[in-house]
Amino acid sequence: MPEPPTPELIIRIRKIVVVLEETLEEAGRPVSPPTRRAAALAVIENPFAGRYVEDLSPLYAVGEELGRLLTERAVAALGIEGTAVQSYGKAAAVGEDGELEHAAAILHPKLGAPVRAALGRGAALIPSSKKRGGPGVPFDIPLGHKDAAFVRSHFDGMEVHIADAPRAREIVVAVALTDSGRPLPRVGGLQAHEAKGEDGLR
């Protein structure tokens, strides 16, 4: 007999936070137009906290829904069309009763598809990071060009935190997007306007 389908999880979101960072000056020089990075974060209950669960596939659908929701919020914060987004990244911070594998189950199998759909493209892998910590723990969302990973000007990261999360049985899930690369980039390499975006690298 076939195994019964895995029951779907009802995602419980305690809080959504959106952060917009705009750099107008770097090293005493104006940045024009300003570089803008936006991150959208969701604080969710971890249904598997405190116990070992072999089948983490119910978290895949959670990641898919959060990918859609958080990308919409981050694009709106940037105030541009999704197709104008230049780089992206994702990350999660797991509370002390959770596992890094819980974050992996949310971030990897299905979260990326709705992100790419909202942006119109996304040939490159979405950079990611995971961390365990308590409320207020800072964590970095790595960033890279959405279509060409070799574009050096877009190697970047955005540090985020939420003062009261993650609690022990929570996970903070984050998606970050930019409308540009680093302010005043000058380390050479493939330029964004040169990228073909066919293989996710160049």
CATH arch. level architecture: 2-Layer Sandwich
Gyration radius, in Å: 17 Å
Q: Count up the domains.
A: 1
Strand residue percentage: 25-35%
Give the full name of the CATH homologous superfamily. Answer: BB2672
Bin the helical content.
10-25%
Describe the structure.
By secondary structure, the protein is an alpha+beta fold. The chain has one domain: 2-Layer Sandwich (60s Ribosomal Protein L30, Chain: A), CATH 3.30.1330.110. Helix content is 18%, strand content 32%. It contains three helices and seven strands, in the order E-E-H-E-H-H-E-E-E-E. The chain has helices spanning 58-78, 100-107, 112-119; strands at 13-26, 29-45, 87-94, 128-132, 139-145, 156-160, 170-178. Strands 1, 2, 3, 4, 5, 6 and 7 form a seven-stranded mixed β-sheet that branches. Helix 1 (58-78) packs parallel to helix 3. It is globular. The model is unreliable at 1-5 (pLDDT under 50).
